[in-house]
Amino acid sequence: MSPESLRDAFRAFTTTCALITVNGPRGPNIMAAEWTFNVSYHPFLIAVHVDKANVTHDEILAAGEFGVNLVSEDQGAQIRFAGHFSKAETDKLSSEIFETYAAERIKAPMIRGALLNAECRLVQHFPLGDHTAFIGEVLAFSVDAGKQPLILHHGSHRLGEKIARRPGLIVAATPAEVRPGDAITVHAELAAPGGRHVRLLLAGPNDQERDLHEVDLTGEDSLEARFTLPSDIRPGNYALVARTQDLEGRARLEITPG
């Protein structure tokens, strides 16, 4: 079996997708998991299959719980971003593309805008090929009847209709809590024709902006930039702003006293 034929076989399946959240020893994290299924009615159980190499794998084991946020058709950009980067290198939840809220029964943050939000207690896990199956008992859940699921089958679909990727710029700052003079890494994804040059700015409490860095895309639609924050920045809550053409992405950034 060639890698190409295997890829075609994998993409032939039609599934929904979930954003899996966890709050383990490394802090809050999010990942995209296509292999997420309900596997029991009574009790309400959900299975999530996670690659053993993913940071989320050991975080779920340590936390003993996780959140399942079944994505809606509006959240295609969120699953792409969550699936593109790893917690090992990126504080993905610092991106303002994710709007979170506190769970009722678990410590993991939950994601607004999902079709289904389910708070799960880990009740069983076992190896399944090159992944681990995590079985979670649902302790609390909510369903938004006004949302429609995003379907994966050779790309993203709206119940069979292909979803066009909207122009946008998504950015995350790592770490999301820094001191003046610290080094910071910025990851971003751009969905737009044309523009390749991105300005990075810092917006303060009163939206006063300060230029930090300029960078060109390092890949087809992504960038990575590492630089040092000025040492004279005052502590406070800021927005790291990425801007190109008429598109803008923002990430939360907290600057603490040095």
What can you tell me about this protein's structure?
The protein is mainly β and 258 residues long. The chain has two domains: 3-162, Electron Transport, Fmn-binding Protein, Chain A (Pnp Oxidase, Chain A), CATH 2.30.110.10; 168-255, Macroglobulin (MG2) domain (Immunoglobulin-like, Sandwich), CATH 2.60.40. The protein is 11% helix and 50% strand. It has helices at residues 3-12, 55-63, 76-84, and strands spanning 18-24, 27-33, 36-40, 45-51, 65-70, 100-102, 109-111, 116-128, 131-143, 151-152, 156-158, 161-162, 168-174, 177-178, 183-191, 197-203, 209-216, 222-228, 236-244, 247-255. The chain has a seven-stranded antiparallel sheet. Strand 8 and strand 9 form a beta hairpin. The longest helix is centred in the N-terminal third of the chain and has 10 residues, at 3-12. The protein is globular and about 55 Å long. The N and C termini lie far apart (56 Å).
